């Protein structure tokens, strides 16, 4: 929801802390998840994630969440799906070139990042989207891959 | 087109300049910039036609006063002759080209193929762009692709060039030797982030930057202050975007219809108050070039004269850039790259 999504950016700091806690829990549950099986867990966990993040961030379930690096403003709401920063078309009032009624997600991201402790990761280079992951749970990916050597760092 | 045939005879279109240590490309633009000369690039308005002469006519006018010609990739999301097509015509005739690639219309498979094709044709410079949204152009019903963004595109081409592999990891037998560029828009929010964002492009592989049209000098100066504070002007060559405004009406139209263009009211007011608005627009552009040239960290200008190519050469000549450069060239021990010797105007 648009209004809630703006709220989330204003509360990026709190959400950052909340997520750090969630991530610890997810990684802690790794043995349990492994026993149940990630593929079996995928549908219910993805549904939960979609519900929660959909409400707070208008999450699109790209399956490779980088909210922690984008000031809690979901980059997949950018009509150009830019994951590395704003385009050059941002309007003088900070609204989007493509959707004039919407605030540019990167104007919001920049604001949110400044409220966060780890906000400088907005400068990290993000790889292109892996389009095979749409609809899958980022949380489970974090549980499975976070801190595992040889795996790319996963975010939630 | 007698002139072009003459040029054709003088050029060996297939022969790039000899490679130099530390250079990514064998192109003229990179040499001029690394030589510390104030560089000039200019945008060619792409034809809505299949006639190659239309490209050559425009290129001839521009080539006299610039180090490389930008072949745009459906800018403003309007359909025109493609940047690949224009680049192919221009390199065939021996011109130096900056081939623009926008992420709006092609996915990573198509783009990586185009990069190899372009390098094979002799394109020495590639400018990586996100691209204007499809809503801005003549085909608003088109599917926007945006599979990559300008930054992941930069990184992709840099990997192709420096590590000889595609994004997939598959090997490339002969890597594309290209000088990599990106755009920057200091005139759009979030203003405080813009220099950092340019830095991000540099870390992704940008070696030169062409900025959006500059009409607001104080804003540009603030941006450059930040750029210098971050030391970015030492890591890449920054070419400031400039161009003549045809009239106050045209300026207003651009401001409200072309994404990312910021024109202060004072500039429009100055045009409105002039007897001859077109001449005033040109004068304003020349003044801006002269002022921009004094800003520390600016390595050149990128001239975009929408439907006014004939003005570009007058603007460059009257701005005095060339004289300053020739004076320096005469005393320079570096290889002579006088723009007036056609065999070296190229690439
Ligand atoms: S203005 Fe912002 S939200 Fe809109 S397309 Fe550009 S970066 Fe995306």
Explain the overall architecture.
- The complex is a heterodimer of chains A (156) and B (347).
- Chain A is an all-alpha fold and 156 residues long.
- Helix content of chain A is 46%, strand content 0%.
- Chain A has six helices and no strands.
- Chain A has helices spanning 2-10, 12-28, 30-36, 38-57, 105-115, 138-145.
- The model of chain A has no long low-confidence stretch (mean pLDDT 94).
- Chain B is 44% helix and 13% strand.
- Chain A binds chain B through residues 79-92, 94, 97-98, 104, 106-107, 110-111, 123, 125-129, 131, and chain B through 103-104, 108, 130-133, 135-136, 144, 146-152, 155-156, 167, 183-185, 188-190, 192-193, 196-197, 199-200, 203-204, 212, 259-260, 262.
- The complex binds iron/sulfur cluster.
- Iron/sulfur cluster is lined by residues 78-80, 82, 86-87, 89-90, 96-98, 104-106 of chain A.
- Iron/sulfur cluster (SF4) binds next to α5 of chain A.
Give the helices and strands, then pairings.
The complex is a heterodimer of chains A (156) and B (347).
Chain A: H1 2-10, H2 12-28, H3 30-36, H4 38-57, H5 105-115, H6 138-145
Helix pairs in contact in A: 1-5, 2-6, 4-6
Chain B: H1 2-10, H2 28-34, E1 39-44, H3 52-63, E2 68-71, H4 83-92, E3 97-102, H5 108-121, E4 125-129, H6 150-163, E5 179-184, H7 191-204, E6 208-213, H8 217-229, E7 237-242, H9 248-257, H10 265-272, H11 277-293, E8 298-303, H12 309-319, H13 321-331, H14 342-345
Parallel strand pairs in B: 1-2, 1-8, 2-3, 3-4, 4-5, 5-6, 6-7, 7-8
Helix pairs in contact in B: 7-8, 9-10, 11-12
Bound molecules: iron/sulfur cluster (SF4).
Residues 78-80, 82, 86-87, 89-90, 96-98, 104-106 of chain A line the site of iron/sulfur cluster (SF4).
